[in-house]
Structures are given as C-alpha cells and as structure tokens.
Design goal:
14 strands; alpha/beta; eight-stranded mixed β-sheet; elongated
C-alpha cells in the first residue's frame, strides 16, 4: 500500500475520485465471448445429405462472430477454431477459461438414425432428464475417442455411462441461471422464424463441464433430416440462424450491462474507503485441498486472481488480495455464492519474516525422475528433488517472507516455468 505524504490530502483524494468515476463511465471493460464450432479436422461430426456437421458449425460461428464484431466494439470475440481443424474438448474449455470469458456458446447440428426428426434445441449442463437428452450428449462426448491419450485426460470418463457425469454437473450450477437465460433467448428467436423448437434442455456435455462461465450448446437442427439438412447447409438458412443467435446474445448482454452499471455504482461509493493498517492485506481463503488445481480449472468455479500456497502438504487457495475491507467482503460473497461455504477473510503481512519457516517455489510434480541439471529446469542450478508417494516434487529457491516468494515466482514464470506455486516450509 502506498502512503500519501502530500500535505493537501483532501484535494488529492477528491481529484482521484473524480478521475476514478470518469474512468468507470468512459472505459467500459470488454465483454468476452467465446464461440465454439463443434467438431473439425478428422472429426466430421454428423453427416448429412447436403453437408458435414463440422462445416455447417464453422460457417455459423464465423457468421455470428462477424455480426458481433461489426456492431459491438465493446465485445471481444474469441474463436476455438476459425479453420477446419480438430480441437480436443478440454482445449475448447481451456481457451474459454484462459480468455476469462463472460459467455461460452458452442454450435452444433443434431442427428438421428431416422430421417424424420427435426427441430432446434439448446442445452445447458445438467443431469440427463431422459434418454433422448443422454443420447445427444453421448454422441457429442464420444469425440474424446479421437483424442490421443483420452483415458488419462478425462480420467476414465465413459460417454456411454449416465453415471459418469453425475457430480461433474455440479460445477456449472453457479452459472445455471444465466446459462438458462441465454438458452431461452436463443430458442425463442428460433420460434420467431417458425422453426420447431424442442426447447431448452439439460445434459452432461463434456465441453460445458469444464467451462467456468455461463455456457450453452446449440443444436441448430437435424442435419440428418433431408429438408432441415438442406436448410442448415444453405446460405439463407445459415444467415437466419446466425441472426437468431446474434439477437439472443444482444438480449443477454443488455441485461449483463445493467448489472455491471449497478456494480460500478457500488465501486464508486467505496472509492474513498480507508485502507487497513499499513503492511497488511486481506485475502479470501476459499479452498484447502490435497489436490493441486490450475487457477483456470473448473474446480475453482470461476474465482479470479487466485493465489496458491502449499502448506504442510495441502494446497490453500486464496483470491482477491486487497487492503480494503469492502473489496474482501465482496470477494467473500462471490466465493460463497460459488459454493465455497467455508470461505473466510484472512489477514496477511506479506513482508513479515518468520524465524520458524521459509518459502520456496514448487516448480511441478511428476512421476518422472529428472536430473537436477535437466533442460526442463531452464538453467536453474538450485533445484531440489524429493520423492513422496511414488512422485517427485521439484522445488527451487529459499526466501524468508511471502513478498519475496511472490517476486521469485514471477522470475521463474518469466523463464517459462509457468506451473510454479509458492510453498511454505516449517524449519
């Protein structure tokens, strides 16, 4: 925390507040949308008489993206693919999480062994309510069989087993309300074009399981139906479908912007709040686990600005480092709403030196035994290897306070050791 020493503090605070208010209203943050074209590359998806699903999906995504980018300068569109290439399901979700997306839309075409079925349906993540829903999710999830080492990546997930998705679906529950909202807008717009809507449904799609934001998967129609398949492959049909999805997005974003304006008003009212004592910061401890999760993983449920400290073999997850109590309380509320009911605000003195402990950087954990001078360590000459429970833990560095540990971690990440975390060791 910086301490102002200028004598006219009152005027400085007033000018700062005016600048802060002006910034809030003149520079709105971008809304980040991820558009996902299902299938691609060697994965054709469903095959129709008029087109392959992968090609229709990509064409629709590019049309929706073009409409948004042309008319919405405050929206950043990220594409999981813009060409005919194969993208693993986990990678698609990873793109959305790392991009800190506000919304994820995956576009697909439906299919049936029979030629008669037709109509649209939009899915959010949830338990399979009937056999039809399960069959749609099963067909989309079976894409994992085209991925290398899928058994390791998806930890034994079986697309043919309804039980495989139970529990995973809980991860998206905190986004369910907003996911249902955008899904309803989409299906209502399809109805306006006199298309048969099968409604908004829930099922266990792997591509939605790992996304840490409101997410939907659209089945834009049955490519297996001769008439609807022809419509999906046509320029006119695709333009209409893209416009339906685009209009649904506008309706959703309009509500999102209203909520954002209310949040800005709250931020303004807190702008001159008195910080806590010098040298201390507040963080929200929201999870303690023996499992090590990536800050963007779905298990952390969208928590932002995550810090991880390993203590006594356990990984402690923190969010929202600040010297304002109102900000820490706001982060605490977010954590509890995300399902971390035991979350709490803790006080840190990051520069405090403890005689009985020190900090090091845990570079990574691996079942593989590396030499201390292996190239994977980017030239570091102080790597320590320790074997615990059939895995090797690699650490480097030794400092006496958390502030120094953060700086050391940043140095290692600049070297390319991006998986490093801070570990607190008792002497």
């Amino acid at each position: 925390m910086r301490v102002l020493t200028i004598f006219n503090l009152k005027n400085i605070l007033l000018l700062t507040l005016l600048f802060f208010i002006n910034s809030l209203y003149s520079q709105k943050k971008d809304f980040i949308l991820v558009l996902d074209a299902g299938h691609g590359g060697h994965d054709n998806g469903a095959k129709g008489l008029s087109a392959n699903e992968k090609d229709v999906n990509l064409s629709l995504v590019l049309k929706v993206g073009a409409l948004i980018e042309k008319k919405n300068k405050d929206v950043k569109v990220i594409y999981t693919r813009k060409t005919d290439e194969f993208i693993p399901l986990m990678t698609r979700a990873d793109i959305a999480n790392k991009g800190k997306a506000n919304l994820f839309i995956s576009i697909h075409c439906n299919s049936s062994p029979k030629s008669a079925p037709y109509g649209t349906e939009t899915f959010v993540l949830g338990a399979h309510r009937n056999r039809d829903n399960f069959d749609v999710a099963k067909r989309e999830n079976e894409v994992i069989y085209m991925e290398k080492d899928y058994q390791t990546t998806y930890e034994g997930f079986n697309p043919s087993s309804p039980e495989s998705v139970i529990g995973l679906t809980l991860m998206q529950n905190i986004y369910l309300e907003n996911s249902l909202k955008i899904a309803s807008y989409i299906e209502n717009n399809f109805k306006k074009e006199n298309r048969f809507s099968r409604g908004v449904k829930q099922a266990g799609f792997l591509v939605l399981v790992q996304t840490a934001m409101p997410s939907v998967l659209i089945e834009t129609g049955f490519i297996s139906n001769p008439q609807e398949g022809q419509y999906l492959a046509s320029e006119e049909g695709q333009n209409t479908i893209a416009k339906n999805i685009y209009d649904a997005f506008l309706s959703y974003k309009k509500e999102y912007d209203k909520k954002s304006e209310k949040k800005e008003e709250i931020d303004i009212s807190q702008a001159v709040e008195k910080p806590i004592d010098n040298g201390k910061v507040l963080k929200v401890q929201f999870l303690a686990s023996f499992n090590r999760y990536d800050p963007n993983s779905a298990q952390l449920r969208g928590m932002q600005n995550v810090e991880i400290i390993k203590t006594n073999g356990k990984y402690i997850y923190y969010a929202g480092s600040t010297n304002l109590r109102s900000e820490s309380e706001a982060t605490l509320k977010i954590a509890k709403e995300a399902g971390f009911r035991d979350a709490s605000v803790v006080e840190f003195n990051e520069k405090e030196v403890s005689i009985n402990q020190y900090y090091t950087i845990e570079l990574f954990i691996s079942p593989k035994k590396y030499r201390e001078n292996d190239s994977i360590f980017k030239g570091l000459n102080n790597v320590i290897r320790e074997r615990i429970n059939n895995v090797y833990i690699y650490t480097s560095g030794k400092v006496n306070n958390y502030d120094s540990a953060k700086k050391l971690l940043e140095v290692y990440k600049n070297l390319g050791l991006n998986d490093g975390i801070i570990s607190k060791i008792s002497s």
